[in-house]
């Protein structure tokens, strides 16, 4: 039997990024079941005014892909008013592009730290990793924000098929897994780089997004699906094709950007189906015949994938691994898969099955997960109630620990298991972060850089991000160990309590945040 | 606080003996040391082996790749001729001297017998060393470490990067060193008052404590090694960047710390579905820093290069035919790179199946004539002097060595 305080800590740890001061009391007084229902229905939760204002202030992620492209897009495709752009103009535009990426990261961290709808934030993390795109591939740093806002967040708790369709059609995914180039060989629109099949998305959508690697598809199904999805591209599609220099063959990846009309009507969708590049022949896909009639083929293929029992099992397992245990109980996974199939892939219902299961609340599940770097950093900031205006030091630690936000190059996304994240150097880094945060050594209160577009470059691969220039009173306050212990519900072993007692006064808070009980959730 | 003071104090806190900080300090406490070293570089994402070691004598290669074939030797941007049949991608020019001095060889048409074209499954099999078996709990380099004779130190096996990869995880604890500049940045945990506070939390034998203790031991050794190195590195020469910075770090560790026997790097960015390029372009831009990093490693190892074998591998190859986007999709056979003093280099090993359509795997990919486990088994048996019995622990069920690769490494 799990005590009510331990259960309150468990649900705030698993359905969110751990407690802030007072959260455990609130969950206990509301009742764990009601709190879970509240988290499953985030639209019913009122947002604090200051939080809502800060979210509203980070505006670029809410621009449509076309708008963000038009306003912040790469210099090479901007209308050239006066001939070639000067180096200064190019630099400014590059800074503006980085500004957009930085806003997307900031918004993610702000919400993780401060949103009362914590489950919504965990699911954004979960589904983003499930449908991963990479911040450094081509234009995806421009489209990340919109990808999260339009394709991921609205469907977090909804129908899986909607999530699948929204990611399939978002330019960030079309670009990341190359389907925007996927073209029927010999079709009227086949030209230059658009001249043949590209299997990349067709394979990963089955292996990673839906059926799972053992989900019963063959190489022939990969090829069939690639043909079905020919012409699914980034629009607007222009007719006739605009002449441009012959493809030189060796352009680096960053230059291979989709040529879009920069001044299209704002807000118009940027997914396009190009019939001139589609293969209209009939196909056989996963044993079903698909009549070659255009864009509907792709919709039917996604329907087939979303309804497959293999997908139900795969999604059930993935969710259970994230929310329950690295090697989740098969019985729970099976009942989640049954719910998935009986509710037409309703994610809220699947999660309710998990959260109501006895296994989820059993003592064996408490503290069974090792926090990912992202979760460790966000939960520490929450527990300490640390005010953050400057997110870069947090990003830097995540990058150093190997989980740079939106920085997973490969389509499987970041893992969330102990095997993926527990390692000697990582322990050194976590302990060091606990010390730096609890002593108030991080410049988290430096002036936010979101007011001045393009003043700083976003962090690139690896390494520690240079902190914002030091300013008076830029550092966060030192943390109080007694308050931290209370916030976390005093859920510590005797050994940890002894270590906290034995630590010098200024290090007690660091020992709390660096304790095994805080590394786990 | 002076770094040497906290190093000394933190060694004591971590239960290590007090040692003088200075050149060859570790040799003093570990006079035997490893005689031989083995370095593995995994290219994650499936490098296009046919554009690495180019079969320039095959018309089928040029037929299949109208825009991304590397031209024949002698033509602009042409391959660097190796043996009349094969040529090296021109971005790998910094490796040509090693081919000439015969310490660089290749095993072509090599790879994993499993048919998967999933990056993640294929990498998993290449790291577990058990193609087709997902339940293997450990990586083959961890099993190899367990079979090596002699005393194990925290630096016996070193992974570069923020996490310990599958290939090195398992029963034995293996430490990792951060990539790039992060390696030698001071951290709060370096201060003895702080590590003393945490030592009380992580003194046990649970997984977190073991990782913590290994991290502390590694931190002390790496910092000591790198500190001396940084002092020398200020001597005018530009610091290497990227992969070469990490390989230079490894060479420096090896020079000062004879315990280092196994090392692992991984590099991403090889999944060239679009605009792969030929002599120049995306693949070339990734190959050049790889070659430069290997050349830096070989040169910086100094005399230790004589006793080092470096292997470069990737989870599978790419399609023989270029796709509709001037790139290549997931394929099957690839090329394995073998470099180092004990290598009988200057040769491309392995039975070459050819690119004739009738010879391709599933009508599209380079076939495999050498199982990667046979190649690695041979190298390990000869170079690390492992018995057949020990070898069977590292690669259980590996097929016998094909004669076409028999001479690749000297005993």
Describe the structure.
The complex is a heterodimer of chains A (521) and B (411). With 521 residues, chain A is mostly helical. Among the domains of chain A are: 178-241 and 267-325 and 327-345, no CATH class; 373-519, no CATH class. Helices cover 49% and strands 2% of the residues of chain A. Chain A contains 25 helices and 4 strands. Chain A has helices at 4-14, 23-30, 32-40, 49-57, 65-72, 87-114, 118-130, 140-152, 160-169, 171-176, 200-209, 219-228, 295-307, 309-323, 330-342, 347-356, 358-361, 373-383, 392-400, 418-421, 424-438, 481-487, 494-502, 508-513, 516-519, and strands at residues 232-234, 271-273, 283-285, 288-290. Chain A has a two-stranded antiparallel ribbon with strand order 1-2. In chain A, α1 crosses α2. Chain A is globular. The model of chain A is unreliable at 76-80, 239-269 and 450-472 (pLDDT under 50). Chain B has 411 residues and is of the alpha/beta class. Chain B has one domain (37-184, 242-405): Alkaline Phosphatase, subunit A (3-Layer(aba) Sandwich). In chain B, 32% of the residues lie in helices and 13% in strands. In chain B, the strands form 2 sheets. In chain B, strands 1, 5, 6, 7, 8, 9, 10, 11 and 12 form a 9-stranded mixed sheet that branches. Chain B has a 3-stranded antiparallel sheet with strand order 2-4-3, with no helix packed on it. The longest helix of chain B has 27 residues, at 207-233. Chains A and B meet through α11, α20, α21 and α23 of A and α5, β7, α7, α8 and α10 of B.
Annotation keywords:
heterodimer; A: 521 residues; mainly alpha; two-stranded antiparallel ribbon; B: 411 residues; alpha/beta; Alkaline Phosphatase, subunit A; nine-stranded mixed β-sheet; three-stranded antiparallel β-sheet
